[in-house]
Amino acid sequence: MKRLSFPFLLISLVSGQWNYSGSFQPITMHRTSDLSNISLPFRIAEIEVGFSKGDFDFTTSSVVEYRWTGGNAEFDLREAYLIWYPSWGEVKLGKQIHAWGAVDGNNPTDNLNPYDYYYMFLAGADRKIGTLSGSVKYYWNDWQLEAVVIPEHEPNRYPFGEDDFPIAMDDPGDFLTAGETLAEYGMRVQTTMGNSDISLSFFSGRDRGFTLVGYKYYIDWATPVLTYRKTDVIGIDIVTFFGDLTGRTEVGYFNTNNNHTTDIKTFNDAAYVQFASQLEYTTTNDITLMIQLIGNDVLAVNGSTYAYDENGNPTELIAMNEDELQQGMGTPFAMFTDLGMFLSATGNYWDNALEIRINTFMDLEDNQAMLGGGVSYSPVENLDLELSITQFYGAEGTQFKTMEDFSHIQIGLKYSF
Amino acid sequence: MKKFIFGIISISFVLGQTGYEIAKMVDEKPTPKDLSNKTKMVLTNSKGKSRTNAMVSKSTDGNKKQIIWFIEPKDDKGVAFLKIEHDDKDDEMRMWLPAFKKVRRISSKKKGDSFMGSDLSYEDLSSRELDENKYNRLDDEHVDEVDCYVLEIIPKPEAKSTYTKHISWIAKDGLYGVKEESFDKRGELKKKKSFTFQKLKNYYVIKKVFVEDVQKKHSTEVTFSDVQVDTGIDENLFQEKNLKRLPHN
Predict the structure, then answer these.
(1) Could you tell me the pTM of the whole model?
(2) Own/partner pairs, B227-231, CB within 8 angstroms, 24+ separation
(3) Domain boundaries B18-244, CATH class
(4) For chain B, domain boundaries
(5) What is the pLDDT of residues B105-126, one digit of tens each?
(6) Which of B50, B108, B110 to mutate to test the interface with A (most CBs of A within 10 A)?
(7) B107, B163, B236: best mutation site toward chain A, by most A Cβ within 10 Å?
C-alpha cells in the first residue's frame, strides 16, 4: 500500500496545474534631510507558488527580507493555505491573510490579522501578517456569510530597538505576558441592497497591540504588566454610489476588557468606536481622487493610572481619562490622531506606463501632517521604476514631530514575472 | 391623398425595414448562450509604441454576465473583473485585487471610463438596450465587399450614454457589426471601430476589434482566440469567489 501511495501522489501532482508569479523589487530609503540611508528591512523579492487540482488550490506566498546595512537576507513564508471551492462557497485552511471592510487601507473592522509595523506604510495585504486560521464563506444569491476561526492569537510585529524606525519602541521584555490563550473567531455577513453593498461583522479576539493592565509586586517594588486585552468588535461597512461618486464607510464598535490577574489592576474595561469614510471620483482624464476621513472616539473607560510627583515618583492611583486609553485593535492611524483626513490623487498616463500619485494625511485635531508623492514608470513591460517622497511635519509634542527625521525618499525598481 | 398614401407604401416597400426594425433584428438574432475566449489587447499610442494585455474571459446571457481574469502584464496577473448587468437597477461591477486580498465593488455609472487603459470604455463593452436608443436608417453601403445596412443610433437620455451618436454598418447577411463610428458630447467623431467576425456553430462570433480614438490618436486592437460557444458555463461561475481563481482551461 505504501508503494502505491507515492506514485498516486506523484500522478496527482503532475495532473494538477502549477502556477507561479512574483517580483524582484530592490528598494532603498534615504532621509530627505541628509540623504543618509535608513536602516530597515525591505522585502526585495516575493514569489507566489500555487497548485490547483479540481476544486482545490494550494497557495503559498513568500518574501525575502533584506537589510542593506546588515546584509543578511531572511526568508519569510507569509502565507500557505489550502482552498476548497465547493459549489456553495469557499473553505480556506492554513496561514493566510484576510481582508474585511469597505474602505481603502485604514479599516476599523479588519482585525483578523496583526500588522507588521516594519511595513506599516505599505498598502493592502503587504502590511499584514498571515495567521494560522480556518475560514468558510457561503454564497447565496446576493448574500455572503463568512466565518473565521483563529486558534492562536498573533500580535503585531513591532520594530523594537530600531533607531531608524520613526516611532520609538522599547522591547517590553519580561513585562509582556502572553495572557490567556483563547481561540479567536469572527463572522461577517454581506448583502447587496439596491445599489449598495452592506456588511455586518463581529470579531472576538485579543488586541494586536499590548497595553498596560496593572502591576505585579515583587519583594519591595512593583513591575508593570503588559498584555493583550480581550476585545470584541462589532462592525458595519457600506459601499454605495452617489451619481459618479463612490462612497465607502466603515464603523467599528470596540469593547475591550482586562481578564488578567495582577496585584494592582489598572485597567478594567473600555468602549470605543473607530470610523473611516471615503469618497472617490474619477475625472474625465482618468485621475482618481479620494478623500478619506478617519477617526475614533473613546466612549467609556474604566481604569486607573498613577499620578506622579515632581520627581517622577508615583504617588496615588487616579481614574484614567479617555485620552489615556491605548486602542489595541483597529486602524493603526488611531495611534496618531482622533480625527484625520487622507487625500489622494492618482493618474495613469502613457497607456499605464506612468503613474503619478499624490497623497496627504492631515491631523484635524493637532497640527501635524504627512505629505507624499510618487512616480512609477514602466519603460518596458513588467519592469517598473519607482520614486517616492514622504515628508512629515508636526508641531512640538506631536507624533509627526518625532517622525520628521524619518521623512524620506524611496527609490526602487520592480521586475514582475 | 390617395397618391400620398401610395407614395408612402412604395417608399416603405423599396427601403424595407426601418432603422428600429433592423436594430430589433440584430437584437433578436440568435446569440450563444455562453462564450469563452482568450483575449489579447494591444494598445498603440500616437508614436507607435505598443503595450500588450492578455486576459481570459467567460460570459453568458448575451454578455450580461461576464468575468475577466487578467494574465498580462505580469504585475496585474490575478486581477479579475466581474460584471453583472441588471434591467431594473444599476449594473454591478467588482474587481478582485490580489494585493489587497479584497473584492472591490466599483462604480458602473462612469460608463465613459477606459477599460484597462484601452480605447474601449465600459460603455463600449456593455450591451445596448434596444429601446434606449433611436434608430435612423441611412443609405446602404458596401464595406470591403460586405453589403451593409447603415444605421444612425442616437442614445436617449435614459441610456446615460457618453456618446451623442453612433453610425453602425451592419452586415445584411449575418446581422453582425462591421464597423462603427461614435461621436462625443460635442458631436465630434471620437472613435472608429471595426470588427471581424467568425462563424461558429451558426453564430457570428467576434474575432477581432480595432478601435481608434481619433481625438487621442491612440488605438487598441483586441484579438480573441480559443473562442468557444455554448459549452454550458455554469451560472454560478459569475460569483465573487471565482474572481480569485484563474481558470485552468
Answers:
(1) 0.85
(2) B227/B35, B227/B36, B227/B37, B227/B198, B227/B200, B228/B35, B228/B36, B228/B37, B229/B32, B229/B33, B229/B34, B229/B35, B229/B200, B229/B201, B229/B203, B229/B205, B230/B32, B230/B33, B230/B34, B230/B201, B231/B34, B231/B36
(3) mainly beta
(4) 18-244
(5) 988 766 777 887 889 988 888 7
(6) B110
(7) B107
